[in-house]
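Q: Competence protein TfoX, please. Structure only.
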Amino acid sequence: MNSAATRGLALDFASQIAPAGSIDIKRFFGGSALVRDGLQFGFVMKGILYLRVDNAMRTEFETDGSEPFRYGAAGREVTVRRYYAVPAHVIDDPALLCSYAERALHAASAPGHRRSEIRALTSFG
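A: Structure for Competence protein TfoX:
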């Protein structure tokens, strides 16, 4: 999936989650980040929507068979357990998708979440 298609998919998800203009889409490595009020709470990479999770969401996503975000770096695979692929049944249910996005935003803003991490992740936009 090329960057224009990834951005288009991210814009589509953003329009389903919140009113137009309330979610910014920024370049994020090979994908597009979803950012609200300066907090990255999700991203689209290779056609997959990933949301920031807390412990409760991680358990729910794992129960649904979702996987954490993974990428290859320096000849090894890195697993990022803060972001999980959104299950298909959530994407297919607009109300549930909105609920999960709000939960992801809350997880991104929870105490202990480093804003510098967010700036580093979205600095390519």
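A: Brief note, in case it's useful. The longest helix spans residues 94-109.
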